[in-house]
Amino acid sequence: MKKHLVPLLLLAVLAALPLVLQSNYFLHLMILFLLWVVIGSAWNLLAGFTGQVSFGHAAFFGVGAYTAGLLFHHLQVSPWWGMAFGGILAFLIGLPFGAICFPLRGAYFALASLALGEGIRHIATIAEAFTGGMVGIMIMPTFVSKVPYYYITLGLAFLTVLSIQAIMRSKPGYYFVSIREDQDAAASLGIDTTLYKNISLAVSAFWTGMAGALYMNYMGFIDPHVVFSLHDYSVMAILVAIVGGVGTIYGPTVGAFIMVAFQELFRTGFFGLFAYIGKAAGIGAIAALGDAVKKAHVLGFGILVIVVILYLPNGVVGDWEKVKRKVFRIRPNR
Amino acid sequence: MDVFLQTLVAGLLKGGLYALIGIGMTLIMGVMGIINLAHGQLMMLAMYITFVLNTMGVDPYVSLLVAMPLLFLLGVTIQKFLLNPLIKVETILPENQVLMTVGIGMAMTEIARFTFTSDYKYVTTEYANRTFSLGNVSFSVALTIAFGIALVFTAAMFWFLLKTDLGRSIRATAQDKDAATLMGVNTARITVITFGIGAALVAAAGCLLAPVYYIFPDIGGPFTAKAFIITILGGLGSTVGAIFGGVTLGLAESLGATYFGMEFEDIVGLTIFILVLLFLPGGFKRLTKV
Q1: Residues 6+ apart with CB under 8 A from A236
Q2: Cβ contact (<8 Å) for A110 and B95?
């Protein structure tokens, strides 16, 4: 029970948050954070636990988002149905893709997933009559308040993490890890490695698709450049998991928090700190520096990746002992 | 018929440049076993170097002499201080080096954006828009010169890999790193040099492309994608394959753009990529046995 205490406590705090904090801006950040928990955890199931690094999760995210949007656009079906259908469609796209790529070894899967993401983006752009092309799709948001969205995202994030935890404690979970550690050994023990890689991909694609559909519902607008973006989704999903800790259950949750906070710090110029100091001290250069910081968030991401991979290659959660030693000067118990 | 010939020529000329990009990538992939996802970004830097030199009145083909050594040094630095240290670290994902190149690529793009803004820049030369014709087929002067230089570089690369000691060491490292180490090859040094050479080759492609393309910070991404499609087409780590892969991609893109429409140009590459994965995993390397 002690093991579950921290996550349950965290869940309780998260559930109580909207009662205490009612600022829309804060809720928006929390929704983004929870959305990234879903995507990061889903990516981590496939890459961190099964060892199949994907550079194309934007494909699943975008397919989910477009399913919700197109269902409403063409058939007037509530985009909330898109959450179920988006997940299923992402899963259906993952199926043949996995069937093609998983029998191959080495770098093929990473490369093919990159191609999948870019390919679907092109298709969504070209099929203008069906998807609206570059113009994108707009829907009316269902709720005025952000609170319902917050709880729905929280529920989705909770279910995702819970399901991944359950999988990793069951037989397929151990198969996944054995495939990651040594595929030949796993195969020689009679594990159908292609099948289990496909199962991992299917679950991962499903949750990512759901997250995409939820994004459509929340934002009310999508276009191919946004939801199929290589940098904003495929790479960001990787960053969330890497920074938090690949191959750990709660790593992506920690990573999502760090990344969203990081992005927001840059976007607002450290919450206007630079502008404030610049004005107070009357030095234009500091204010200009603040503007530069606002523009530099992708650069910040790039440098963060380099630093994290060099010094914390297993992420904050995976290298927690190291972090404790370095930051808090605590020696590990022997 | 003329349209068809024209398309073939355009594709072939583009293919030569693609081959140059692909060889750099496939060298790195073969020797280090990693995909360099910052490859297009290295090319983008070379294009900006060409642009800066051009504003000072230097011809793009002369700036090859500046951009290639600079990018060689940059490649060496990246491999030595950012990628090689990762080999010693125990991690869950073996792809950490690939992810590192993603980070490097992002940083390079954004540094370019800070320095030059997102605006489209172009290199001004008197021959950029000039063409000459053979029969009814017209050739772009800039692209033809680029094709010629690309051929020279490719041939030089072959000579280097086949005939020199360093080239042999590189091939040995690519075939079996452990065995090469046992035979007295300093593999850590070889990886550093190889990354430098790969970067210098893609820098050459960047300089050659500069007169005919717009230059902007995000140009790296699509070219990284093209580079890996070429590498897959040719077979991972095969230099001969990269040449065939480059020419095939160039031809396919031209044909696609002519007969299906401009917006299908990028899809063609991806389609070929998937077909190769399905029917010829291992790429052209499988066919040539080189």
Answers
A1: A36, A39, A259, A301
A2: yes
- DSSP label at A248? -
Chain A nearest-CA residue for B84: A310
- Find residue B140's DSSP bridge partners: B131
Q: How far is CA A241 from CA A192, A255, A308, B239, in A?
A: 26, 6, 11, 35
Q: Are B17 and B146 in contact (CB under 8 A)?
A: yes
Q: How many of the other CB atoms lie within 10 Å of CB of B252? A: 19
DSSP B119: S
Alpha-carbon gap, residue A309 to B107, rounded angstroms: 14
Rounded to two decimals, what is the model's pTM?
Answer: 0.84
Residue ranges in A189-235 assigned as alpha helix (H): 193-219, 224-227
Decide the pairing of beta strands B137-140 and A221-222. unpaired
- The greatest distance separating any two alpha carbons of chain B, rounded to the nearest whole angstrom, comes to 62
State the Cα–Cα distance between residues A327 and B235, nearest whole angstrom: 46
Tens of pLDDT along A87-106?
A: 899 989 888 888 888 887 76
- The whole-angstrom distance between B115's CA and the closest CA on chain A is 11
Does B83 reach chain A within 8 Å, measured CB to CB?
no
- A107–B270 CB contact, under 8 Å: no
Distance of alpha carbon B36 from alpha carbon B24, whole angstroms:
10
The rounded distance, in Å, linking the Cα atoms of A264 and A61 is 22
**DSSP secondary structure letters along B233-278:** HH-TT-HHHHHHHHHHHHHHHHHHHHHT-GGGHHHHHHHHHHHHHH
Any A CB within 8 A of B273 CB? yes
d(CA A211, CA A185): 35
Please report which confidence band the pLDDT of residue A129 belongs to, taking 50, 70 and 90 as the band edges.
Answer: confident
Whether the Cβ atoms of residue B30 and residue A106 lie closer than 8 Å to each other: no
Q: How far apart are CA A204 and CA A181, in angstroms?
A: 19
Return d(Cα B215, Cα B207) in angstroms, integer. Answer: 11
Indicate yes or no: CB of A310 within 8 angstroms of CB of B86.
yes
Is B87 an interface residue toward A (CB < 8 Å)?
no
ipTM strictly over 0.85?
no
Helix (H, G, I), strand (E, B) or coil at B132: strand
Residues in chain A: 334
Chain B residue numbers with beta carbons less than 8 Å from the beta carbon of A305 are 99-100, 102-103, 106
